[in-house]
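Design request, tokens follow.
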């Protein structure tokens, strides 16, 4: 303790946070700033109208910045996480549990979509008179082949942003570092440092999120207005209700009864990722944010974060499964097709496979919808009409269904982290909004 009162006063002043616009801005939790940007963007879009498209470049730039860091972040984080494992056998344990849980939640999501569609019947009386038929590429295969996973050239895969080959190579490299034991430790330390640097880069990019969200929402509302939902209000409400049920009830129950953890800290800690998922409509664009909140807010260890979340970006598509299942029943009702119990089961199984193979980009599920509708006799012409009916307002529905895609990833990572003793429960229970 100093005897100089002047020094004491100066020290007290140094402890006080600086006031001013920047101090006030950064003193507000990030999720609150994103919410403010979202709300102001909606208001600006309503007032400005189609002129709001002029600022869409700001949102596009934000999305590009996030996607810029996805591949390097995924690569170094997976390698660092795998190399940090003490027992190599745990890599297989984490992977099997992760994929099993993802398929489990995706199957529930498909069942939720089909059930809501069967009970509410949003397709009855649907008016396709103003829909312009739209034929999408239906050559997409259901599921994944080895050519989608094993890269002939890993650098080419990185340059093209192909996530699965990068994940595969990163898992192999991490395993090789682990097998090298002492001689691999310098490389392991390098990737651990690189992973930390990439996380800091994500934090820098996320400070632009409120402005990016503002621009994206303003442009969307400005061009679509409030009339965009009138013709599909029943379907839109079903999508919203189903996604809320999957997010807050199903994923909440998964965290509560499979991870044995309270639910509120999970949603409080996941808020940033949920908002970015909603505004960007892209699971891959949300991945860097999800990885950050998983470690910093939920206390999940890097071994699980680096394995479960990147896999989830391409495998876990709860919102997509729910949406495709719901659209299948919508189409059946609109075209007067009576579905049997066997057809519902077939639709559910096909929907899960389709969801697993869906690219984590906006509106990708529409490319898979035709294959699902073919299982119960919808013709190519009817499928084109259905897609033409949905496409004009798919963007807002895509924003809604991307949220359960993201919370599924985080819920499964939480459960696997708990099972593998790779989660700091104290950090989880004190999940903060940052």
């Amino acid at each position: 303790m100093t005897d100089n009162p002047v020094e004491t006063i100066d020290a007290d002043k140094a402890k006080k946070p600086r006031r001013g616009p920047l101090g006030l801005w950064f003193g507000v939790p990030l999720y609150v700033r994103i919410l403010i940007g979202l709300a102001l963007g909606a208001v600006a879009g309503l007032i400005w109208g189609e002129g709001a498209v002029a600022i869409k470049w700001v949102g596009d730039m934000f999305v590009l910045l996030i996607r810029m860091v996805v591949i390097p972040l995924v690569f170094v984080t997976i390698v660092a996480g795998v190399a940090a494992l003490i027992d190599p056998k745990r890599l297989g344990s984490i992977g099997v549990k992760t994929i099993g849980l993802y398929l489990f939640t995706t199957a529930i999501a498909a069942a939720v979509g089909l059930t809501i569609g069967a009970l509410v019947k949003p397709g009855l009386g649907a008016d396709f008179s103003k829909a312009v038929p739209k034929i999408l590429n239906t050559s997409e295969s259901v599921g994944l082949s080895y050519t989608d996973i094993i890269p002939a050239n890993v650098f080419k895969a990185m340059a093209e942003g192909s996530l699965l080959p990068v994940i595969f190579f990163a898992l192999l490299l991490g395993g090789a570092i682990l097998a090298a034991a002492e001689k691999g430790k310098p490389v392991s330390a390098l990737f651990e440092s690189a992973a930390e640097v990439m996380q800091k880069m994500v934090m820098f990019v996320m400070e632009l999120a409120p402005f990016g969200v503002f621009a994206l929402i303003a442009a969307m509302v400005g061009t679509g207005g409030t009339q965009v939902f009138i013709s599909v209000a029943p379907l839109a409400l079903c999508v919203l209700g189903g996604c809320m049920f999957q997010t807050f009830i199903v994923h909440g129950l998964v965290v509560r009864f499979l991870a044995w953890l309270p639910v509120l800290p999970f949603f409080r800690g996941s808020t940033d990722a949920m908002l970015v998922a909603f505004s960007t409509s892209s699971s891959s664009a949300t991945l860097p944010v999800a990885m950050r909140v998983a470690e910093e807010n939920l206390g999940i260890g890097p071994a699980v974060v680096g394995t479960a979340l990147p896999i989830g970006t391409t495998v876990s598509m709860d919102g997509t499964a729910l949406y495709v299942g719901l659209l299948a029943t919508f189409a059946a009702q609109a075209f007067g097709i009576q579905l049997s119990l066997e057809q519902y089961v077939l639709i559910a199984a096909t929907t899960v496979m389709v969801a697993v193979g869906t690219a984590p980009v906006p509106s990708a599920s529409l490319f898979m919808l035709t294959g699902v509708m073919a299982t119960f006799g919808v013709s190519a012409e009817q499928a084109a009409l259905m897609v033409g009916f949905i496409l004009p307002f798919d963007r807002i529905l895509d924003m809604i269904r991307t949220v359960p895609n993201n919370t599924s990833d985080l819920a499964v990572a939480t459960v696997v982290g708990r099972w593998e003793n790779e989660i700091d429960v104290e950090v989880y229970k004190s999940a903060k909004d940052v």
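Comment from the thread starter after seeing the answer: thanks! Residues 6-15, 138-144 have pLDDT under 50 and may be disordered.
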